[in-house]
Amino acid sequence: MGHRLKVGLLSLFSWTVFAVAGPLEAAQLLGVRFGPKGDVTRVVFDLMGAPDYAIYGDDSGNGRLMIDFIDLSLSPADQAYRPGQGHIGRYGFAAAGEEGARAVLDFNKTAKIKEVFVLEPAGAVTKHRLVVDLETADMPAFLASLPSRYPDLTAVIEQATAPAPATAEPPAATIPPSPSQKEVAAPPPERLTVVIDPGHGGADPGAQGQSGTLEKNVNLAAALLLAEILEKRGRYKIVLTRTGDTRIRPDARETLARNAGADLFISLHADAIAQRELRGASVYTLSEQGSERSARIAKEEGDYVFYDLDASSYGEDVGGILLKKAQDKTNTASSLFAESLIENLSGKTPLLNRTHRTGDLRVLLAPDVPAVLLEMAFISNAKDEANLNSPVWRARAMKAVADSIDAYFEEYGDRQYASNRAGGAY
Predict the structure, then answer these.
(1) Which of 118, 190, 215, 337 would give a disulfide with 206, using CB separation of 3.0 to 4.6 Å?
(2) pLDDT, tens digit (0-9, with 9 covering 90-100), for 17-60
(3) How many helices and strands in the chain, by DSSP H and E?
């Protein structure tokens, strides 16, 4: 795994909210064009509608550039990898979140970002064009050329509203570190917080298998094993919503995750249905209806505090916009983790045909915690019930879940982000 630039999970909305008149209409991808010329390659995304995008990248292979479009419709043909030109060896698209899409461009020759800009329709040209100019460079130059990001949403607001200084002050003198300062070791990296939620418990047994297995028990057994596996990997702080046979309200589980400062939340369940032949795992992320319910709850309770920002201090209208953007980013991150789960569980346990599903589920409503609900198997199916009770199957499945968490944070959690909402990072 290549070196990753350690930053926060989200781009955290590097945009000036006070200039936003309303949400952008969804764009449609018309095509991608390349203009290689010597040491420069121009990549042009032709779009019907203005793009709402974020750019980031990493040092995989010769370098990889990724662009997240918040609202972009694709045709099925767009989602296949195909050859590029110039510095781009290949490129493709994938769905990201409810309505977004991710463009992935793999370099066959390392380059840095020279310029990024949008050309609006003019004259006979009716389309928008997102233009990315790349220039031959080494890997450090590529990483340095990735657009900067604000460290948190509070900084975005402060930067957008701060008055310009009357006069520029001279820079402070640089004091060289003393020998003792040089010898101080760097602090160990902060552990990522993962909240594991064994579904049901106490007076709420959940579903029951044909042989009498109670869902609450297999959920807890899987959660305890997953916690043990992750603890041994040494990079996570693990929080369990329950460690025994206790009943906890769904909203209390969400509150616990937010109070713990969770970087990721996973709720473990076992599905049940009258059709006993149906078996296999599925992964749920929050549906659009769930996002709307989350927004209603926030409004009813006056809870506009997320990502360490009290958005209510900016008024209901601005707070609502900030909440929507937080939800969009969180839902995208949740979907990315869901896809990582599906990839790692494949071949290790049966999966439903349409494995990634969405639902209006209370435990997934937090606007600032990427979250999934994993239905590990159908407890109503005899073979799946046997798996749920099998220590061998449980070890294999929970290792796959732990590997998914590792892959998620390595692939998506350590990135350099930028957004076009800030008035330009270039």
Answers:
(1) 215
(2) 332 323 345 688 888 999 998 899 999 999 988 888 888 888 88
(3) 9, 19
Q: Which of 213, 317, 328 is nearest to 270 (CA)?
A: 213
pTM attached to this predicted model: 0.56
What's the token pair of residue 74?
């694709």
Answer yes or no: are the C-beta atoms of 89 and 106 closer than 8 Å.
yes
**CATH class held by domain 192-411:** alpha beta
The structure tokens listed for 125 are 């040209």
Query: Residue 92's CB: how many other CB atoms inside 10 A?
Result: 16
When pLDDT is cut at 50, 70 and 90, the band that residue 402 belongs to is: very high
Q: Is the pLDDT of residue 378 over 50?
A: yes
Is-contact 241 198, C-beta < 8 A?
yes
What fold is seen in the domain 17-151?
Immunoglobulin-like (2.60.40)
What confidence score (pLDDT) does residue 174 get? 47
**Beta partners for residue 92, in sequence order:** 104
* Of residues 411 and 91, more confidently modeled: 91
Strands of the sheet containing 40-48, edge to edge, are: 72-73, 27-37, 40-48, 128-136, 111-119
Task: Please say whether the beta carbons of 395 and 389 come within 8 A.
Answer: no
What are the tens digits of pLDDT across the range 176-202? 454 444 444 545 567 899 999 999 999
Start-to-end Cα distance in the chain: 29
Question: Distance between CA atoms of 23 and 278, rounded to whole angstroms?
Answer: 41
Coil, helix or strand for 294? helix
106 pLDDT band, cuts 50/70/90, is very high
Helix (H, G, I), strand (E, B) or coil at 282: strand
Q: Rounded to 5 degrees, what angle do the CA atoms 312, 72, 114 make?
A: 90
Mean pLDDT of all residues in the chain?
79
